[in-house]
Amino acid sequence: MIGFPVIRRTCLEILQANLGYRCNQRCIHCHVNAGPERMEMMDRSTIDQVIAFLASSNLRQLDLTGGAPELNPHFRHLIRSARAMGIHVIDRCNLTVLEESGMEGLEEFLADQKVEIIASLPCYLKENVDHQRGNGVFEASISALRKLNQLGYGQKGSGLSLNLVYNPLGSFLPPLQTLLEEDYRRELGERYGIVFNHLYTITNMPIHRFETLLTARGERLRYMNLLQGAHQDGNLESVMCRRLISVDYQGYVYDCDFNQALGLPLLLEGRSRVHLSELKGIDLKGNPIPLLDHCYGCTAGQGSSCTGVLSSPMTQ
After folding, report:
1. Which residues contact residue 270 at a Cβ distance below 8 angstroms, ignoring those fewer than 6 apart?
2. Which residues pair with 166 in a beta bridge?
3. Three-state DSSP class for 187?
4. pLDDT tens for residues 43-80?
5. How far apart are CA 144 and CA 138, in angstroms?
6. What residue ranges do the domains of the chain occupy?
7. Which of 78, 82, 165, 261 has the fewest Cβ atoms nearer than 10 Å?
8. What global pTM score does this model have?
9. Do 282 and 269 contact (CB within 8 A), yes or no?
10. Is there a contact between 119 and 95 (Cβ–Cβ < 8 Å)?
11. Domain 14-216+239-290 belongs to what topology?
């Protein structure tokens, strides 16, 4: 990568575990190529290694992703174990998985464990969501959101956080998060009676499925130039790779989920890749982070992370 500043780790705060690439959806922007045909799933032995690492560390947050993490048969065991240690758990949910056969009672389980839900909903309009995620996805998502609201998710004072995620429908940066959140709140409230806590906007990463789409449309170079031209040095302090580790379904460690998708492992002297079971007691502060062109996706414009923008419009 030419011109991208060196980034080094700060104190580790979050363990993000990718529980597998199997998903009930096949979204056009997915950076891990997840879908119903994928069989890679984190097994019980690796799940228990994640639990052991949490028990031996000072981490207070476990972030579960996939694919659809809920499809992992050990999903509830991992959550129960983490919550018993007082660890805050996030479930990155595509919403429609809650409507799948075999998922009965999952919403109640998540509410009982006080799991924060970060739910993908790329638009408040049916035609846009179904275009990006498949026919029928919007209606299933609305049904799932209503069930979550009935359990208290997104309701003031409930202690059950429901945050939504917007991904652009094409090769452009997200609009201002604050303004789009107002639109979502108004449209979902007026049309469907749905409430939520926050909206997070996340830039599409030019890797795997989305990169293939860009290339097919002849837009890859233009999109990369857009990301690089919109780079903001002010976002470098807050990029998620500085305080998070990403663990794949086999237990190997990366600096973020995007590097995991590209096979760029965490750098540790003398090792080609590092397993989570080998990381106990190792201080990663100051560790350099491997970088490629996709990193501009996190520093462009307002910035992009797993919890939305990194900077306010006033800082740009």
Report:
1. none
2. 201
3. helix
4. 999 999 999 999 999 899 999 999 899 999 999 999 99
5. 10
6. 14-216+239-290
7. 165
8. 0.92
9. no
10. yes
11. TIM Barrel (3.20.20)
